Amino acid sequence: MLKSVQIAAEKIRKLEVQGARNVAITAVRAIETLAKEMKVKNKKDFLKGLSNAKDILFSSRETEPLMRNAIRWIIIQVEKSDITNTKDLVSLVSLASQKFLKELEYSKEKIAEIGTKRIRNNSVIFTHCHSSTITYLLKKATQKGKSLELICTETRPLFQGRKTVKEMLKLGIKTTLIVDSAARFFMNKADLVLVGADAITSEGNVINKIGTSMIALVAKEARTPFYVVSELLKFDPATMYGDYEKIEERSPKEIWKKHPKGLIIRNPAFDVTRRDYIHGIMCEEGIISPHSIIEVVHRKYSWVFK
Amino acid sequence: MLKSVQIAAEKIRKLEVQGARNVAITAVRAIETLAKEMKVKNKKDFLKGLSNAKDILFSSRETEPLMRNAIRWIIIQVEKSDITNTKDLVSLVSLASQKFLKELEYSKEKIAEIGTKRIRNNSVIFTHCHSSTITYLLKKATQKGKSLELICTETRPLFQGRKTVKEMLKLGIKTTLIVDSAARFFMNKADLVLVGADAITSEGNVINKIGTSMIALVAKEARTPFYVVSELLKFDPATMYGDYEKIEERSPKEIWKKHPKGLIIRNPAFDVTRRDYIHGIMCEEGIISPHSIIEVVHRKYSWVFK
Amino acid sequence: MLKSVQIAAEKIRKLEVQGARNVAITAVRAIETLAKEMKVKNKKDFLKGLSNAKDILFSSRETEPLMRNAIRWIIIQVEKSDITNTKDLVSLVSLASQKFLKELEYSKEKIAEIGTKRIRNNSVIFTHCHSSTITYLLKKATQKGKSLELICTETRPLFQGRKTVKEMLKLGIKTTLIVDSAARFFMNKADLVLVGADAITSEGNVINKIGTSMIALVAKEARTPFYVVSELLKFDPATMYGDYEKIEERSPKEIWKKHPKGLIIRNPAFDVTRRDYIHGIMCEEGIISPHSIIEVVHRKYSWVFK
Amino acid sequence: MLKSVQIAAEKIRKLEVQGARNVAITAVRAIETLAKEMKVKNKKDFLKGLSNAKDILFSSRETEPLMRNAIRWIIIQVEKSDITNTKDLVSLVSLASQKFLKELEYSKEKIAEIGTKRIRNNSVIFTHCHSSTITYLLKKATQKGKSLELICTETRPLFQGRKTVKEMLKLGIKTTLIVDSAARFFMNKADLVLVGADAITSEGNVINKIGTSMIALVAKEARTPFYVVSELLKFDPATMYGDYEKIEERSPKEIWKKHPKGLIIRNPAFDVTRRDYIHGIMCEEGIISPHSIIEVVHRKYSWVFK
Amino acid sequence: MLKSVQIAAEKIRKLEVQGARNVAITAVRAIETLAKEMKVKNKKDFLKGLSNAKDILFSSRETEPLMRNAIRWIIIQVEKSDITNTKDLVSLVSLASQKFLKELEYSKEKIAEIGTKRIRNNSVIFTHCHSSTITYLLKKATQKGKSLELICTETRPLFQGRKTVKEMLKLGIKTTLIVDSAARFFMNKADLVLVGADAITSEGNVINKIGTSMIALVAKEARTPFYVVSELLKFDPATMYGDYEKIEERSPKEIWKKHPKGLIIRNPAFDVTRRDYIHGIMCEEGIISPHSIIEVVHRKYSWVFK
Amino acid sequence: MLKSVQIAAEKIRKLEVQGARNVAITAVRAIETLAKEMKVKNKKDFLKGLSNAKDILFSSRETEPLMRNAIRWIIIQVEKSDITNTKDLVSLVSLASQKFLKELEYSKEKIAEIGTKRIRNNSVIFTHCHSSTITYLLKKATQKGKSLELICTETRPLFQGRKTVKEMLKLGIKTTLIVDSAARFFMNKADLVLVGADAITSEGNVINKIGTSMIALVAKEARTPFYVVSELLKFDPATMYGDYEKIEERSPKEIWKKHPKGLIIRNPAFDVTRRDYIHGIMCEEGIISPHSIIEVVHRKYSWVFK
């Protein structure tokens, strides 16, 4: 019965689905399918099914706050609804799922619109890794007539920077690729740094691809504005209550396939950029100070804390 | 007649000889051979020959202050000598060459001795790229009974960090390899940073492998002592008179073999670490403040400025 | 029909009316007059008229968030009211205008009260340019028995510092005038820096007279508390959605009347002081951290975001 | 009639009761007793009595925001209640008192739970002075299986650090005591700094035992996370309106019993740690950025501002 | 007899002669003239006369290290010479004077040559006030084919920046003038800051036109290299022995001609830029770290310390 | 035969002699006495005796560079002398000892003279611990008519600050005592920080009483000049060659006499202040940048490196 959910979880675990946004979409759709396939008699069992699905999906990766918040929200819709008829509950889940995905789409558009305004004409943008929200933003900015240039790191070990530069070249944007450790060498040439986020903590810190915090340090030193581009729902409520955002450590093979025996290879996938290095978070609510993240989430999505 | 010199220069140009120390040794030996092979009648022509050799070797790479200082020194020995007999001049060059190489060897030993004292027992050393002076130092420290652990970056694009970790593993040193952009993630675990130098400027700044200046910034932020390990003769007198130490830019292929058309790849081989990030330079003269480099070189090697 | 509005807009454009507060008062009164003079049949046309007035006044200067927020608020009162009778709408606009101006007056009093408490007896205040809110605050503090001393920059190019020092001398306050670039020389003598604001962005940054951000930097270096004294309604909601607060660039003649041909003179009227340099914003709501500005405005004046 | 209150106030004044938490508890109990002992005829007189008690207790120490907020809250419960019968009002005060104390207890538990999660296994905690909330947190963390080590300053002049280390030794925690001025010497060995708070200002600054702000500076320099552990109700609303949190200055005898005549001894009990040095405040609401303190208090305890 | 010296001193006092270089030249010529005009019998009286001249010239301005060092040097030539014949001593003074001025000229050329190399093509230079050494350097750089752009402050109160921009416009250099307090606004556009020096202290600090230290602070923040362009003989040996370099305070009229009664106007002519803000001093000896100034002066001009 | 030396060493070991200066004097006198008492036949044995004395005295404390340099210097005088007659060697040692002590006295006077000039009238000096060179300097400054005020820390654990304040009170200087951790609280009131030195390293760092480096950090933050007052011969040549200046760790009893069992008490006597926090070293040679220490010592006392 939970097969569609298990398949989705597996895909997420094996990184066949990548990017916080895609992971969330996959999970939402799996929940929607599950709701349809579940043959249960009452709301209690319906909720039980959803709860099981939640457990399976939550355990697919250490942290994926956007996916987790998505699932949380859909379940809350069911819980707070007066509907008891299971058939209607299936429709409700379907509607909720659609609404969530639509909102996600809206956030992307809104962020692109905000970012476009924030990019001055003829400016040089610096980025790290690959973020679909950022590449969409740059596409929109270019379409709106903003002339811009991009400097992108290759982003070891998985070279996601290459994905970014390929997309940019297709848009005809002048693009420069550098090794990660050349960031300081080139920072004085940049007018603006844009990076994505995997998670945002209650203190206002941002978890993103390993190396982001070094780029933030370098940007601060060069007085180059540093912005995080992210949906608000990347906020992880667990950090509120003391949990560290877990830093996933990935296979040494990603760094060196046939490494010598005895060598320790450490491969953390993310690092933490402290709020004081971040000029602002560009989110669907506007450009906000990371220091006020809890209150903004409370105002917009208070259900997150439930 | 200048064939041996031309071959040496070619090897240096093509990076068949690598590392400031090896480049200097190769050049010195080529000069020694040339002296023997030159069939000239008088000191004037002998000096002319050396001068031609100097021009060829100097042009083999943008900057190689150690090699340049080596050649300068040998020629000065000839110039200031009273000898006029060409046969005796050949011997003189031979003696001078041997002396220079011996001094270089002595410097390495002295630096290893100093460094060994400076490493506290059971400490974690952080390094970047590969420096034969540093690996020798760590070997000596281990032999002297210092227990230590190494964290080394992989050092894109040419992965010289792999060379470093292989040598360390052979010595039985606990060694961890990380991607370059994880330096900040791991810096709080390090007790000491050691890096090499390609050149030292008159202001006390150090030119070294791309990424060094970022590691310096990260070390400062974490209050981890950052030392440069280098022979004093890496000092480049041209910087005194306004010349920028040229930053060699290497082939984009090193970063991405089959990169998309239209993509700009920037591949500077070095960056500049400002003196204020450097706790000290460990050199044959002892541990010195980089701010006093000119005067130390004046006291020890005043001929450099001629 | 829009004549009174056009006259007001013209006065604002030509700087016959100066200071955010005075500009707002002028605009509010013009709207009030317009409402009385408009001869329209229904609410729809009434609102159309107000909207036209808004467009004219908004275009009189690049940014004047206080004025813009004032106009926004009055129009919202009309929109959300159930009144449809145009005569009553005129009264409504009049009442709203009076209320807004009264609130503005209250803010000034409240800020003066807060600032008075925050000034320690026998302290030296440093300020830049001229702010009527600050001079009122200092007047009140003196009247309440606080003994204080003022250091003020001359504030090139228009010498508004002279206006400030004249007002202070009338109050019998010991006052020192310096050139702008002597700020760092004198900063260690100051106990407190107070500056005004032209606009506050969603990130918590403050736009104020050119030079303010340098004084902030200097104050931080000397560990001298730096406060912004401003009504909350200087908050500019457009910055939320990505718009840069426009930095007005004024005539070169202000800097050099008969300057040589070919010389470029750049004369930005304002600069941006980042939130991290600001100890607090003294506003009608109390002393707040600039980082929380969006949420404070949401709580107090949520209509601003409409 | 106000005897129990006067006795409580006297105990607080003479420091027979110490620690913000104990002071609050003592005051709440005195209010409860007073309510029972007051023989008044109507609600007006009842409130008059409470108000007198408030004045007496408030004047017992310069600032004790937790106590003040406790008393404020109880009186608000009476004011807003529809009850007029004095007997029932006595019960109401009693209930409110119990509720407040229970909430205080809950906060302590919640903070300990959050803190426990935030402490990584095998980490070294640095603290200053004595905070019952912190010692409780460390006890809980140890009970939950977290292995930790403590470095504590002796905390001149009253050596409260000795109290902390005694409690820790009883729990079997490895504990190191140092003089206050050795904080920088040992900071690189610490993974986390935890300090308490006496008061929190509207700007997000924290008032705590003298020396705290130096430790914060040293922690920042060493990139060691610095957290304040405190109930939200240590927030002092008076700071909002410009009042400086008063820094109590205590007897010179505490520093030097028989000091030479003519010597000035300054003995401020507290100092101010600016928000920018604080990674987060661990409070009953979770881990929050100090920059957002006003809005968090508004959301949770809006009555504080009344 | 000392008339020529007194006239020179008077011109210097009244600022009829301006700029450290011109002041030194005037003093040297006055000494030369005096030597010729003195009618004395023996070397002792000759030296007495020079010593009197020295006293008069030294007292003409608070500090003018270049002039003082010039006079010191000439007198030392006389003292250490074996010549006793007064006629020959006149020739000696004449020769020494010519030599000093020639050396000064050589320094200027050497500095221009060094600076030209240090300026990258197509770069933007930022400067403050007027320095004849810098304008000469920029002229030479332009003649050598370096394309550059200049941003210059107006430099209140005496607008020396206008002098600088006029000279630049004549050379056809693209030049922008800004008010002093706009330095931070424009700093990110600059590639290099060049300022002159009035004096250099034994600690390596530089005394220059008021505002220089603020520009240094701003340059550091933006990671823009900041160089001092100065002859080594601006070094003031008195600072070695504890004397503060006196900061001349000039007439309030320079700032505000008809200022209100009671107003204090402070008009320090110079401020101190600490060595840590200075990337290097471009002097006749090359580009040096300011931290090593004493030893460089000892090596080159050890007579300064006599 | 070595009895006088052994007694001296014992006194030094047991801290019966305190302060680098007194320790050096005691050792010099012991050497002088030894020379007189030794009954040896030839220079070789004479030198042997001195060498033994050196070993005994060197081992009396971990590091005492001033004493060590003193002994080194005396022995060098013997070594380099042509005298072979043992009787004359006794005289030579006596003369050398007297000369050394006289030079030490001269240094003290010179430093006091320099420091007096550097103290502005009516300024507030901040100091830590007790330094006889500093108290002498302040005495001289007061005698020369400088009006000054002193803030001094108590300096735990041995309260040497009390010694300092007692001496100051005798001189009639207005003196304030604070606990060590109040340094940051009072730093903004200070115009100048003066501290002593136990040793100076080749990098230019200063070893002094525990807490000095925290005061340096706090002074930097407040932009208060921080000077080290010390004889140049506190320079420790061993640091040149990699040796860490050993940080003596003293008895836990100094911190807590009857401490609980199981408690670890760490009591390092000194800490390291990095050169970048030091405005200058006031020494007999003048005020110098710590960065140039090696070269200054080379110029003045090159024998130190032998």
Q: What's the domain count of chain A?
A: 2
Examine the secondary-structure arrangement and name the CATH architecture of the largest domain in chain A. 3-Layer(aba) Sandwich
SS summary, helix count of chain A: 11
Distance between the termini of chain A: 28 Å
CATH class of the largest domain in chain A: Alpha Beta
Number of strands of chain A: 11
* CATH superfamily (homologous) name of the largest domain in chain A: Translation initiation factor eif-2b, domain 2
Largest interface: A-B, 43 and 42 residues
Largest sheet of chain A: 7 strands, mixed
Helical/strand content category of chain A: alpha/beta
Helix content of chain A: 40-55%
Average per-residue pLDDT of chain A, rounded, comes to: 95
CATH topology title of the largest domain in chain A: Rossmann fold
